[in-house]
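Subject: Sanity check before I submit

Could someone independently write out the structure tokens for this chain? I want to compare against mine line by line before I put it in a report. The sequence has 481 residues.
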Amino acid sequence: MPFNASTDSDTTDRATQDALTFSLERQRAAYRADPVPTLAQRREDLLALQRFLRENKDALCDAISADYGHRSKHETLLAEMFPAIDGVSHVLKHLRAWMKPQRRGVDMRNFMGAKNRVIPQPLGVVGVIVPWNFPINLAMVQLTYIFAAGNRAMVKMSENSRNLTALLMEKMPGYFPPEKLQFFAETGGVGVAFSQLPFDHLIFTGSGQTGRSVMAAAAKNLCPVTLELGGKAPAIVCEDFPLKLAAERTLFVKCLNAGQICTTVDHLWLPHASIEPYVALAKEIVPARYPSLDSPDYTSIIDEPSFDRLIAALDDAKAHGATLVQLIPGPAFDRATRKIAPHIVLGAPQESALWQREIFGPILPIRGYNKLDDVIAFINAGDRPLALYPFSENKETIQHILDHVMSGGVSVNDALFHVGQHDLPFGGVGASGMGHYHGKEGFDTFSKLRPVFYQARFSSLKFIMPPYGKLADKVLAFMTK
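---
Independent answer below. Compare away.
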């Protein structure tokens, strides 16, 4: 996601800033007029969001495909529409319980008959910065929890989602007024100006580099942030796990959306003896799913710079002595459609581009190992990944990996699917992000968990007010014994 200073004129920058500020002030005024929406109001917002998705399903799929050049409709339905629609249903089931004040204990020696409560209340106006790779999922799922918590939202879309953004800006006013929800296109300078607004909370999904810029801009307003970043998510296949099953599962995730997923398998660790059999399996599995580059089920790379970066990474690996294994027949790539055939890369050295940054494409480097602890040491020497994928049928082995490798989330014996569990919090750690959404934690993220102490009519404090005397001494001695 680009995050550069606008090349437009100062006048345009001021106009952009004024439009954003006006929208924020309008939403904040609406929040102040109705700061704590009822359960019925929140349910109405969530049902409207779900209705929008259902009533515009085909148009949304078509718009996303147009933005990609080609995006499998089945992938959009599976990875975007279903999680968003089903996620609303999940939240509706739990919202009443999430909204209830929590009872907390009171030290009865200090406050006899007093009560403690934690009341979840709306923060106000939440800013959302959405990337291009799963723009419906990463807008609508976040909005689900924002609305569940009773907030209002301003959403800035990616410059690579122009067709989708135009559709959202056209259709969404029929479901939500602008004082509740408003979308913004990236037209140059909007991203910078957006992140500088004094939101009550800002959530960003994208690259670590851009996340640092967003966090720095938000810090000027002391605006709290949730950052959902990326990283080099490893899969580790252990000797005891069935290799064919591991290949079927890791390759499905690696080819989904042509690998353009922040939680995809970035690279794969295999016992040395398993590498050759895995490659042989991959040569059978992938062509059966995608017979050629022009398969309608195979998605394009989002834009030309990303396409060129991936081709350059393959060339760089080859120049460093790596072996490239193309997994579907025909040409290795098609520049006209921006499609790149899935590749396995063997023997790429550490200094090659594939090991220096998140790949974000249909390229799978494989590295062999003898000892599991060597893999753990390698992973721990880098940034903490957003996701970790251990494959083993041995509980002690899995627990050893969980204990010794920290990551944002984990799928055991599969890849990616922890992200789609509505009742699991999703979020990174360290360089892969901070904060959570999904599940109860998502509701809490966009709420102020407000502590409220209710004093009783009678309080022991009356005995320890100045001037202090012997009675105060006795009471304090009792309280501190």
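---
OP: Matches mine. For the report I'm noting this point. The radius of gyration is 26 Å.
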